[in-house]
Amino acid sequence: MKILFVTSEIHPLVKTGGLGDVSHALPPALRQAGMDVRVLVPGYPGVMSRVSKASVVCTLEALAPIWSPARLLEAQLEESGVPLWVVDCPSLYDRPGGPYQAPDGNDWEDNALRFGFLCHVGAWLCNAPSPLSWRPDVVHCNDWQSGLIPALLRHRQPPPVPSVITIHNLAFQGNFDPLWVTRLGLPMESFHMQGLEFYGHLSFLKAGINYADRITTVSPRYAQEIQTPELGCGLDGLLRHRSADLVGILNGIDESWDPAHDPALPAAFDDRRLVAGKRRNKVLLQKDCGLTKDPDVPLLGLVSRLTYQKGIDLLLDALPALMAHPLQLALLGSGEAIMESRLREAARAYPGRMGVTLSFDEPLSHRIIAGCDLFLMPSRFEPCGLAQMYAMRYGTPPVVRETGGLADTVVDCTEEALREGKATGFSFRNAASEDLTAAVQRALAAYEDRKEWRQLQKTGMRRDFSWKRAASDYVGIYRALASPG
Ligand code: ADP
Ligand code: GLC
Asked: How many CB atoms within 10 Å of residue 27?
């Protein structure tokens, strides 16, 4: 079966969060499961610089009237050899800054056009006029950036191929001025409540949810949560309406996240050579982060986008209570200016005990996840979350809020779960700094009991978070769509 996988990020070419990791790992897992999968991404500078040997598949003149010159290039993903199709359109993608935001932190003003074009190319590759011999059996869209594809396909009757959309985060919806409906070549007749319209705007994500044949999200718990007003971001009614076609498939983690073979780590370790290896990573991390060298003090880590979603303010509010305990913090993140400045201030208040790095730094993220004793993820909501799974894999029990994929992946360290050898971390119910503090206090108490702690670490390290299971669930969906009945 031929699958076109459309995404706006792919590690290591371009990544702002977990979508980059998923797009790096899921297509190869699908290929292993027998799928002929190709990945379509925009040609941002980070992508173009890595595909210098790409061949030109075709120009995109058929789409030219509204767009500037553009070509489709073909390269291959390193290691897996999965074909990568790149939309090379310099006027839209060749600029400094991130995939979605300018260097000043504001969204690119022409995002509707940038991702509208990606969607047109994706839909065109599924459609009859495409000059390519390869045509997908199913198109798999991810988040709002490819959300218009199902709508564009649906405007041809019958739609040339079925579509799946995966919601990685319902909070990002791609809502734009309605002027874009006609500018993007969409029929004005579909700009209504049961179509593309969302509170007077053109919504890319709503379009995807409305018109895709199947909707998936990245954990079973989040699939339930987004059907409630609390976490439905205004789309819960529509998601309830489509609940028969909605399923939660838990993300996996890539095999390259392995503390025994991670080039970013100063010392390799695994579940049998755990104590010395982690200790060495810890003291070197303390040095890196400007913390006082002390292999025995509990070291808490956090690696995160700094946004409301991630509950960073809960951690900041909990600091006075947490810092009353002998512990250190190593934090890495980038995002909202207000959180960055609060973190900077907090680090100044606790010299030698709180190290804050405000940037996006892949190798440091690995060293924090490996070198810490506990990993914090106090998210207000979390569709899946990958970092907590990386932490478990690296023998760093996570402290998480019981929501979304965090609830689906972390087993709270109750006496019973510990006795049954199932506990992997600590979770708390309410998005409140006192609850976070209480969970950290439980973790600190457990840390004192070396035997109990080792068991907790090893249970997490041995959990199977491979992509195989998820890939086989997606294949099941593709097959059902490609040969209905
Ligand atoms: P989300 O996609 O919501 O950001 P995930 O936990 O699914 O959350 O994925 C986040 C990914 O981004 C992880 O690989 C994490 O290590 C990485 N990450 C987040 N912030 C940073 C940062 N400042 N530097 C390096 N990696 C980061
Ligand atoms: C989103 C979510 C995160 C999820 C990731 C990959 O960024 O916020 O929870 O793990 O997508 O699916």
From this structure: 26
- Kindly report, residue by residue over 385-437, the tens digit of the pLDDT: 999 999 999 999 999 999 999 999 999 999 999 999 999 999 999 999 999 99
**Ligand 2 atom nearest to 383, measured from its CA:** 9
Ligand number nearest CA of 218 is 2
198 and 238 fall within a common domain: yes
CB 373 within 8 A of CB 398: no
Are 318 and 439 within one domain? yes
- For the Cβ of 18 lying below 6 angstroms from any atom of ligand 2, the answer is yes
Our answer on whether the CB atom of 385 is closer than 6 Å to any ligand 2 atom is yes
Does residue 121 lie in a domain region?
yes
pLDDT tens digits, one per residue of 154-178: 987 777 899 999 999 999 999 999 9
Domain, as residue range, for 356: 274-461
Q: What is the dihedral of CA 261, 266, 271, 274, to 10 degrees?
A: 170
Atom 11 of ligand 2: nearest residue by CA position: 168
Record the pTM.
Answer: 0.97
Residues with Cβ < 8 Å from 86, sequence gap 6 or more?
A: 40, 41, 42, 43, 47, 48, 51, 54, 72, 73, 74, 75
> Are 224 and 325 in the same domain?
no
In one letter, which amino acid is 230? Answer: E
Q: Do 440 and 399 contact (CB within 8 A), yes or no?
A: yes
Question: Is the torsion defined by CA of 91, 93, 94, 98 positive or negative?
Answer: positive
